[in-house]
Design goal:
The structure is a single chain. The protein is of the alpha/beta class and 531 residues long. The protein has a domain of 282 residues: TIM Barrel, CATH 3.20.20.70. Helices cover 40% and strands 20% of the residues. The protein is built from 18 helices and 18 strands. It has an eight-stranded parallel beta barrel, surrounded by eight helices. It has a three-stranded antiparallel beta sheet with strand order 13-14-15, with helices on one face. A three-stranded antiparallel beta sheet has the order 16-17-18. Strand 17 and strand 18 form a beta hairpin. Helix 5 packs parallel to helix 7 and helix 8 runs parallel beside helix 9.
């Protein structure tokens, strides 16, 4: 019998509650489309009306189209003092115009008394009424039973009564939440089994979900156990981000369900996109990727010396529990010149580049990649730069322009006004030297403007480029303000979106590298379209 599961991602809401984890609206939109490619069933976008960023996201996402994923708006049951039609939270959920709404309510009696400060019966009333009010407005209505496991342990009868009201209110799925993250697997199983028997006694067909936090390092284990017991929906975040110690990590749950437990879901059949999805989330959040993370960490399939390497070369199954390519990752032999070659060949195929694995060029690209990675370059969020690197090595990249020199000057003449920035640039295009200058909002913006001013007379298509994101990451704090930095630039035109990268101890030089790659990529892609 085929076992299906619903994958519900809450990175854009619960994940952003993690310390130092921040996403812009454009970041959230880009991640949503990546999740759609992966096949995530439900994407929780945030809490409408909670802040201007959330309001802007839900307005923006209404203009986007998705092939598979459904966007969910998140909120709470109404305030006891407000009728549903006057409750701002419920109205904001409806105004978000998402096909899915998820609301949470209290399952733990101490939260009702101490947090809401209302009577236990009043809490049951607002659960039922809030869901019933929202029911006609959405395709899918989910109820997150907050603190359910702790509430069940303290007052089983009341916790089940809260679920009963959610069923009456019209919830499609009851999501049992380990909000404090303190549950262990042996505690989870009997509680879920009791809930299942309770639902069966009522004659209801409502589905069950699991939402686990990781404060006891058991969120993934609790989630997989719940699913093995017949729970139909799992909620979590990519790379396990979330408040305090994080949420259940979907990057570990998705491959486990598909490869080890025999489940089916859209994202399970697209699991080869998992590595690039996990890396993209980290890059856009401007956080270092956990290299030791299972399945999608750079060290997850890394082998270093001795017996392990010898055995893996003969048969990878000797020291690998799955084939790394199945999740989009790759094997790394850390002391061998074979390290990274499989990844390079995979990327070459993706870019439509014919690259013989035995050719010296392949080895040259791997060597250059190793050297650049040692310098601090990372290409997970900058595939355009990596494609240009490969085409340069193969001699197939056109030389659209040559830099002769640039200068950026910051001057602050009045402490009450922002500084002024001017960039001057000298380029050679088709044997002609071009010398231009431009003012800007900071040195990077001034350089960007000066370079476009110099090049658009030769390449009018550059007017189509829009720089939509700019991120700087300090790679090491050893040298203080003289530390090396990595700059990631995200650009787009009417056809696509692409990322480029630069690394230097000089932030302007790193930015220049990324800007040059962005323009070269645009010119190359336009040539390919016209060919």
């Amino acid at each position: 019998m085929t076992k299906s599961v619903q994958i519900y991602d809450t990175t854009l809401r619960d994940g952003t509650q993690a310390e130092n984890f921040n996403l812009s609206v454009s970041d959230k939109v880009r991640i949503s489309h990546k999740y759609d490619e992966l096949g995530v069933d439900f994407i929780e976008g945030g809490w409408p009306g909670s802040n201007p960023l959330a309001v802007e996201f839900f307005k923006t996402i209404q203009r986007e189209s998705f092939k598979h994923s459904k966007i969910a708006a998140f909120g709470s049951t109404r305030l006891f003092s407000n009728p549903c039609e006057n409750d701002k939270n419920l109205q904001a959920l409806i105004d978000a115009k998402t096909p899915v709404i998820t609301i949470f309510g209290k399952s733990w009696d101490i939260h009702v008394r101490d947090a809401l400060r209302i009577e236990l019966e009043d809490n049951l009333l607002i659960i039922e009424e809030s869901l019933a009010y929202l029911r006609p407005h959405v395709e899918n209505l989910f109820y997150d039973a907050e603190h359910f496991f702790d509430g069940f342990k303290r007052n089983q009868e009341y916790a089940l009564a809260s679920l009963d009201k959610a069923i009456i209110g019209g919830a499609d799925c009851l999501v049992l939440c380990d909000t404090n993250g303190g549950m262990l697997p042996h505690e989870v199983q009997p509680i879920i089994e009791r809930v299942q028997s309770f639902i069966a006694e009522r004659g209801s067909r409502v589905e069950l979900g699991i939402h686990a936090h990781n404060d006891s390092e058991t969120a993934v284990a609790n989630s997989l156990l719940a699913l093995s017991l017949g729970v139909e929906q799992v909620q979590g975040t990519m790379n396990g981000y979330g408040e305090r110690c994080g949420n259940a990590n979907l990057a570990s749950i998705i491959p486990a369900l598909g490869m080890k437990m025999g489940y089916t879901a859209k994202s399970l059949s697209n699991v080869e996109k998992l590595y690039e999805t996990a890396m993209l989330v980290d890059e856009l959040a401007n956080l270092p990727h956990n290299k030791y993370q299972p399945y999608v960490g750079r060290s997850a399939f890394a082998h270093k010396g001795g017996i392990h390497v010898s055995a893996v070369k003969r048969n990878p199954l000797t020291y690998e529990h799955i084939e790394p390519e199945k999740v989009g990752n790759f094997r790394r032999i850390l002391i061998s010149d074979q390290a990274g070659k499989s990844n390079v060949l995979h990327k070459a195929q993706k870019f439509g580049i014919e690259l013989d694995p035995k050719s010296p060029i392949a080895a040259s690209i791997v060597s250059e990649l190793k050297d650049l990675e040692n310098q601090g370059f990372q290409y997970e969020g900058a595939e355009a730069s990596f494609e240009l690197l490969m085409r340069r090595a193969m001699g197939t990249k056109a030389n659209y322009f040559k830099l002769i020199g640039f200068r950026a000057i910051n001057s602050k003449r009045n402490m009450e006004e922002p500084p002024e920035t001017e960039a001057t640039i000298r380029l050679e295009v088709g044997g002609r030297e071009v010398h231009t200058a431009s003012m800007g909002e900071g040195p990077v913006n001034a350089l960007d403007k000066a370079m476009r001013k110099a090049l658009t007379r030769f390449y009018p298509c550059l007017e189509e480029i829009e720089l939509i994101d700019y991120k700087v990451r300090v790679l090491t704090g050893q040298h203080g303000t003289g530390a090396k930095v990595r700059v990631l630039i995200e650009s787009k035109d009417q056809h696509e979106q692409w990322g480029t990268v630069g690394v230097s101890v000089n932030i302007i030089e790193a930015s220049w590298q990324a800007l040059v790659d962005s323009i070269n990529y645009k010119l190359m892609r336009d040539d390919q379209r016209q060919a």
